[in-house]
Amino acid sequence: MAKLLEVRNLTTRFRTERGAVMAVDDVSFEVDAGETLAIVGESGSGKSVTALSLMRLIPNPPGEIVAGSILFEGQDLLKLSDAEMQAVRGDRIAMIFQEPMTSLNPSLTVGLQVGEPVQLHRGASWKAAFAKAGELLSRVRIPDAKARVEAYPHQFSGGMRQRAMIAMALACQPKLIIADEPTTALDVTVQSQILSLLKELTRETGAALILITHDLGVVARYADRVSVMYAGRVVETGTAREIYKKPQHPYTRGLMACVPRLDGALGDRLVPIEGSPPDLTRLPPGCAFAPRCSVAQPGCLTARPVLEDVGGGHRKACFVAVDSGVPVHA
Amino acid sequence: MLDANVADAPLLVVEDLKVHFPVMAGTLFQKQVASVKAVDGVSFTLKRGETLGLVGESGCGKSTTGLAILRMLDITGGRVVFDGQDITRHDRAAMRPIRKRMQMVYQDPFGSLNPRMKVVDLIAEPMIVHDILPNFAARSDRARELLALVGLRPDMADRYIHEFSGGQRQRIGVARALAMSPELLICDEPVSALDVSIQAQIVNLFQDLQQTLGLTYVFVAHDLAVVRHISDRIAVMYLGRIVEIADRETLYKRPQHPYTQALLAAVPIPDPEIEAMRPQVAVSGEVPSALRPPPGCRFHTRCPRATDVCRVDEPALRDLGGGQMVSCHHA
Ligand SMILES: Nc1ncnc2c1ncn2[C@@H]1O[C@H](COP(=O)(O)OP(=O)(O)OP(=O)(O)O)[C@@H](O)[C@H]1O
Ligand SMILES: Nc1ncnc2c1ncn2[C@@H]1O[C@H](COP(=O)(O)OP(=O)(O)OP(=O)(O)O)[C@@H](O)[C@H]1O
Ligand code: SF4
Ligand code: SF4
Ligand SMILES: [Mg+2]
Ligand SMILES: [Mg+2]
């Protein structure tokens, strides 16, 4: 069966005063209908730019998608006209952003905004869209939803605003929802409410979810598959179980080892990854992780590793095999 | 050698601490219409060399507690006793000698500072303010020494703040806090803004410094796993009060307050196999406004175990034994 989404060699660049930033560099991944793919990586690794590229929302200038293809239901989104892309956005693909306050208009009622996609894409009347908004808000369990359609975003708490964003994303029953750090600004009890709700609703509607996060715990709880990004590239990808059980890339292994866990042994020292991520305008010619990598070989400094299968769809971009002396962290 | 009694005496005692902020309204004449009880009866003690973790969701009063201990805020009620001295009503002048001994480390160490300032000047600034090391050369030497202590190269002293990464800035922030050789550090979300790979470096730095310098920490963070890793004891706050306090082993293994249990259940563990087996019990609702905390137990609006008594009587902190204190009628 064809994949719902196939991203091939996506490359997005920004021109800045300091030079070209390779924000997303030759990124490939796919998403099946109904599955949850987590994109995980540290700040600046290219997660948001990947998401915005999929939605074709990269500001140009300074940004530009310079290569690749984004096959969605068999159609290359990069070949669509602006008008055609607009018809996809908010309809078959919806996006949820980190900060709902910046993506909700403060001077319009919540109901109007949540109902807007139905009006835009389904030609519903203003009144019908408003009624639909009430339904959607109760679906995301906003108490007293029918009355709250009249409220303005500032009258909502942070968690309620994010619920409203989810309601808006669901409005046209999208095939794919892209959620970019949807709960990072929220308290942990609210975070788990929102993510569980999102997961449940995607399960009900059969939508696929791309969940962008830097939280390895969130990935473990909600994702079927994971792509780990570092300096604009996917360095490892596979099922969540595989990646956590047998991380192959030194960066992934480093990440797993450096986060304290609620169930970890007490008294152990954390094992940090030394150094810091590279400057994307001055990427080294070889593997971008080489300056921080404890098992780097001379060859890593000159050539770039590409994703290669290590079995069962688990892929890593690294020249060195795991069993060559790399400690496997528990 | 310290006298055994002195060594065992707590470095910090906080007793029934209250910090209320007035809420003003009115167009021409502002008058107080209400108050935010940001901290409303917080008590704990801290021994030398110990780390107390302070956790709880946004707005529960963690930062306010820290600022009140440093007397950067006026205290509405209760007492703060530092090394045997009651500093609750100290004015600026009286606080001066004590402020050297307690310092703050912030989440964003230079958010409010000039990015064009040199590192050496930043670290030397508190030395000038407190009038120690009168000449520039001595201060500069000390700054370099501090940079080495926090794992940076001494020659970085001559560079500008904006040239450093987040993790390096936090190291500089720590060096600055250490300039006065403090005994107590109040660390307010010092690793929250950092990427996880950098976070681990800074957490290790805090632990190393505690070992070598014998520092005492109040460590504020919302990441329960980080707090568990670094703290000896942990206090969980909700709407201005401590709902549970215990040593870390007890708190994470046998949490007794329904809010502590809810918080811990909400934190995912980075292991899909464990997550698949964990019951997913999300507590409902969000934290109510601090302006109008619920009557009785402040958690009753979200508590799965709430009964009638919870809606009227505020539970007091009770000792459950072994230093575990819980404020819940049904724990
Ligand atoms: N409009 C822009 N102009 C120039 N550079 C940009 C722009 N937007 C993003 N970048 C750069 O692209 C890179 C990737 O950024 P991106 O926002 O995708 O990171 P991220 O993985 O989402 O990080 P975070 O976890 O901090 O959200 C960064 O180096 C960033 O500075
Ligand atoms: N200067 C102030 N004036 C009025 N209210 C304040 C002031 N400072 C804090 N508050 C209020 O006091 C309460 C406690 O705030 P505090 O900053 O201590 O919370 P916190 O636990 O540190 O939260 P966070 O995790 O968001 O940092 C909040 O309701 C806050 O809005
Ligand atoms: S390719 Fe080389 S430098 Fe890069 S992660 Fe693998 S071993 Fe390390
Ligand atoms: S006192 Fe009652 S409402 Fe409060 S935490 Fe205990 S059971 Fe819940
Ligand atoms: Mg981002
Ligand atoms: Mg705070």
Structure description:
- The complex is a heterodimer of chains A (330) and B (331).
- In chain A, the strands form two sheets. In chain A, strands 6-7-8-3-9-10-12-11 form an eight-stranded mixed β-sheet, sandwiched between helices. Chain A has a four-stranded antiparallel β-sheet with strand order 2-1-4-5.
- With 330 residues, chain A is of the alpha/beta class.
- Chain A has a domain of 182 residues: 3-Layer(aba) Sandwich (Rossmann fold), CATH 3.40.50.300.
- Chain A has eleven helices and twelve strands.
- With 331 residues, chain B is α/β, with parallel strands linked by helices.
- Chain B folds into two domains: 245 residues, Rossmann fold (3-Layer(aba) Sandwich); 71 residues, no CATH class.
- Chain B is built from twelve helices and twelve strands.
- In chain B, strand 7, helix 7 and strand 8 form a beta-alpha-beta unit.
- In chain B, helix 4 crosses helix 5.
- Chain B is globular.
- Chain B starts with a helix and ends in a 5-residue tail after the last strand.
- In chain B, 44% of the residues are buried.
- At the A-B interface, helix 7, helix 8, helix 9, helix 10 and helix 11 of A face helix 6, helix 7, helix 8, helix 9 and helix 10 of B.
- Bound molecules: adenosine-5'-triphosphate (2 copies), iron/sulfur cluster (SF4) (2 copies) and magnesium ion (2 copies).
- One adenosine-5'-triphosphate binds next to strand 2 and helix 2 of chain B.
Q: Which descriptors apply to this entry?
A:
heterodimer, A: 330 residues, alpha/beta, Rossmann fold, 8-stranded mixed sheet, 4-stranded antiparallel sheet, 11 helices, 31% helix, 23% strand, globular, B: 331 residues, 12 helices, binds adenosine-5'-triphosphate, binds iron/sulfur cluster, binds magnesium ion
Q: Report how far apart the termini of chain B are.
A: 43 Å
Query: At the third CATH level, what is the topology name of the domain at 1-81 and 213-259 and 270-323 in chain A?
Result: Rossmann fold
Of all chain pairs, the largest interface belongs to:
A-B, 47 and 45 residues
Tell me how many strands of chain B there are: 12
